[in-house]
Design goal:
Strand content: 15-25%
Distance between the termini: 79 Å
Structural class: alpha/beta
Helix content: 40-55%
Order of helices and strands: EHEHEHEEHEEEHEHHEHHHHH
Radius of gyration: 21 Å
Largest sheet: 10 strands, mixed
Shape: globular
Number of strands: 10
Length: 329
């Protein structure tokens, strides 16, 4: 079989030293019920020999491989894949994750039917430890159509209307012409690199849909970049929210979405604190990182402005989250 002039879908798979997990990912992508696709494996300058490990997979004309000349992080690898992609739609799958066999066919059918720019899928957390019930980060049991405003307000915790919207690009599918028109790209060599990408694409989209009956499986492997901690996490948190604020101001939407900015900032700062206590063992190091995080927070939060938007009850929960009994003794 010859490669199509334009496949219906391009799937971009950034890879960095995940030889053990990569076959599961590629097996589910090549077994998709949607045949009209290309899979672009982007080797982010791995020290593992990724090319040799997938040599047999490269016999399938739908799969191609590129290696970056330096490490650019997941965002840089996705940008390289986007530049190479020719599909009508684009999806992203991390190399240690996998998807249901009907994942892309279900999504593209609905994207075509409703002429949507973005489709969002159910996102399931997977690990080596079996659980009784699935751990859903977001779950869509029925089809829904969202405006950009509603999607953004749900993403930023202003609305709680029975569904959850999460930042990762991996549980989403995009119309490629839409991404090209808005010049969507990822931040490179940066943690949280798909948050601004998601905000930008939400803001510029005409229609966003929720795709039911199929799931993205996110494998949380030991020693992954999200299960460690360094000063870079704090620096990138500051960089991210500096960029988000600048973006909203540039789009003349900061005043409208200031509350959303602070809600999202609060959420990610809580993640930073949780990571410090989960992944940093030494007490002295914990205190050093907390001190750094306070300094970083002051760079992205105008506390007078923040007090205008936060409720007194939310403020109380920040100060004394576990105290409900107000008796002195």
């Amino acid at each position: 079989m010859k490669k199509e002039s334009q496949p219906m879908l391009s799937i971009i798979v950034p890879v960095f030293n995940t030889i053990k997990q990569l076959p599961t990912c590629l097996d589910t992508l090549l077994a998709q019920t949607l045949n009209s696709l290309e899979i672009i494996v982007v080797d982010d300058h791995s020290t593992d020999d990724i090319f040799t490990s997938i040599k047999n997979y490269l016999k399938d004309f739908r799969l191609s491989y590129i290696r970056l000349d330096k490490n650019r992080g997941p965002g840089g690898a996705r940008n390289a894949g986007l530049a190479r992609s020719i599909g009508k739609y684009v999806g992203f799958c991390d190399s240690d994750d996998w998807v249901d066999f009907n994942y892309y066919q279900e999504g593209i059918y609905l994207m075509e039917q409703y002429q949507a720019d973005i489709g969002m899928y159910t996102f399931v957390r997977e690990s080596d430890v079996p659980t009784r019930e699935k751990l859903y980060k977001c779950r869509y049991d029925t089809f829904m159509e969202l405006s950009p405003d509603i999607a953004f307000k749900t993403l930023t915790y202003q609305l709680n209307a029975g569904i959850k919207v999460i930042p990762p690009c991996t549980n989403k599918i995009y119309r490629k012409s839409f991404l090209d028109t808005i010049e969507a790209n990822f931040e490179e060599n940066m943690y949280f690199q798909d948050v601004l990408f998601t905000i930008h694409t939400f803001m510029k989209s005409n229609k966003i849909i929720c795709i039911p009956n199929t799931e993205y499986h996110h494998y949380r492997r030991p020693n992954s970049i999200i299960q460690s901690f360094s000063s870079k996490h704090i620096k990138d948190f500051v960089k991210l929210f500096t960029l988000i604020k600048q973006y909203l101001q540039r789009e003349n939407k900061y005043e409208c979405y200031c509350l959303n900015y602070y809600k999202l900032c609060s959420h990610f700062y809580n993640i930073i604190i949780r990571q410090i206590f989960q992944f940093v063992a030494d007490e002295k190091d914990k205190k050093t990182y907390i001190r750094e995080s306070f300094a970083g927070l002051k760079q992205v939060v105008d506390f007078e402005e923040y007090f205008e938007y936060i409720t007194a009850e939310e403020l109380r929960r920040h100060i004394q989250p576990h105290i409900n009994d107000t008796f002195l003794y």
